[in-house]
Specification:
By secondary structure, the protein is of the alpha+beta class. It is 36% helix and 13% strand.
């Protein structure tokens, strides 16, 4: 069942997606959460919104063994985020992380985490956290699509790949 699962969109063909993959040292540029078997929630320019899963062909899905109650918690948490504005402010810190090799922390990370604005990986992490699942306890603020990819790899849902084809 897809409800409550996290989907990763990988191997972008567009320049924005490729830039996100480069900045996050991954092959993943977008993250969504299935709120039903046919609908997901996605943070994107224009705000967080529900979309048909079919809008995102070839997603790699998580395989959490969710109960019906847990799926309901995730779906209900997602409803709290619908319409949240997109977090364009994330791009500068992502570039900083890529260039320096250091995670953004301190007041910048705190400010990013307290804004109502959401980018795709923030949205997915925030929904899971609100539903009671802390996927990234060691990452207090700035979760990226690359962090989701590395989580999927650590759980055996993706093969570990070198970043061949992603400029380093």
């Amino acid at each position: 069942m897809l409800t409550g699962q996290i989907g990763l969109r990988r191997h972008s063909t567009g320049w924005v997606g490729k830039a996100i993959e480069w900045a996050t040292r991954s092959h993943t540029h977008h993250v969504v959460i299935a709120v039903s078997e046919t609908v997901c929630i996605s943070a994107e320019p224009g705000g967080a919104r529900y979309r048909p899963i079919s809008d995102y062909p070839s997603l790699v899905w998580s395989r959490f063994g969710l109960t019906t109650a847990q799926q309901d918690l995730i779906r209900d948490a997602a409803a709290d985020y619908e319409g949240r504005p997109y977090n364009y402010a994330i791009y500068g810190p992502l570039l900083w992380q890529r260039i320096t090799g250091r995670k953004v922390d301190g007041w910048v990370a705190q400010w990013l985490s307290e804004r109502p604005n959401e980018n795709c990986s923030q949205l997915s992490d925030d929904i899971y956290t609100l539903a009671g699942f802390h996927l990234f306890p060691d990452i207090p603020e700035l979760v990226t699509p690359g962090d989701f990819e590395r989580l999927f790899e650590s759980l055996g849902w993706l093969e570990t790949h070198s970043l061949t084809g992603v400029q380093q």
